[in-house]
Amino acid sequence: MANDRRWRGDGRRRLALGVIVVAVALAGAACLPPAPSPSPPPLNLGFTGPTKLIDGLGPGGDVAGYAIINNGSSSVGPLSVELVGGSGVGTWQATGGSCPGSTLAPGASCTVSTLWSAIALGNAGLTLRISAPGTTVATLEVTGSGIGPAFEFSGPTSVTDDSANGDSSAFGLVIQNSGATTAGIITVDVTVLDPSIGAVAITSDPCSGNELADTLSCAVGFSWTATQVGSTTVRITVTPEFGSPATRDLTATGT
């Protein structure tokens, strides 16, 4: 009888201890962090196309095409296409192609057509992003550049006039756009930094009001009339429709 009571007492203690162990285990399980979500499979795409786009500030743009191939072992799609970047320098937009909405089997390819339009001088980072449901994003980094005209001047660096005889001294200046893009309509202006020494007039100007395309040139005629002895700087300014103004200084002397 005593042994039975001891057995029953030991059984109740073992049962109570088991309940405590289970309760502690359940409490510990409730405190564990959730299992991390599995990472999406990579989007294994290859890109073919230019990574440098250049556009002048005039009308038009740099048209570029890209081929995207599925280098993975399973089909991916439907594809989404996004072009980002260029803020402050230009805009990059998709103009067509077969990639948007398509599904690519392994080894298959599609295309994206783009247009880069510069609005300012400088460079900007651009990104072509291709995505598909349940996968990572595949990207291609591109640089978009905005360029303007470049002016070169040919002509004298100084001019002299006799301030006592009332005559004028004529000189000319050839203006060439040596850049890779049009300057658009240009304007030519001239100023004398110290007008007490004399005055400059434009005698012929087929340049102002006309477009100066890349590699082209035009010539402007001037006259310098000195009113007293001394020297000053004559500044000739070319202001293009697209791009930044350019200046040419020469020394004007009165004798």
Account of the protein in words:
With 255 residues, the protein is mainly β. Helices cover 12% and strands 48% of the residues. It has a four-stranded antiparallel sheet, with no helix packed on it. The longest helix has 30 residues, at 2-31. It is rod-shaped, with a radius of gyration of 38 Å.
Compose a concise summary of this entry:
This protein has 255 residues and is mainly β.
The neighbouring-strand order within the major sheet is 1-3-6-5
Classified in CATH, the superfamily of the largest domain is Immunoglobulins
Shape: rod-shaped
Low-pLDDT stretches are: 19-24
**Which structural class is indicated by helix and strand composition?**
mainly beta
Strand content: over 45%
CATH top level class name of the largest domain:
Mainly Beta
**Helix content range:** 10-25%
CATH architecture of the largest domain: Sandwich
The secondary-structure element order is HEEEEEEEEEEEEEEEE
Kindly identify the CATH topology of the largest domain.
Immunoglobulin-like
Mean pLDDT: 89
Largest sheet: 4 strands, antiparallel
Head-to-tail CA distance between termini: 143 Å
Number of helices, counting only DSSP H or I runs of 4 residues or more: 1
Number of domains: 3
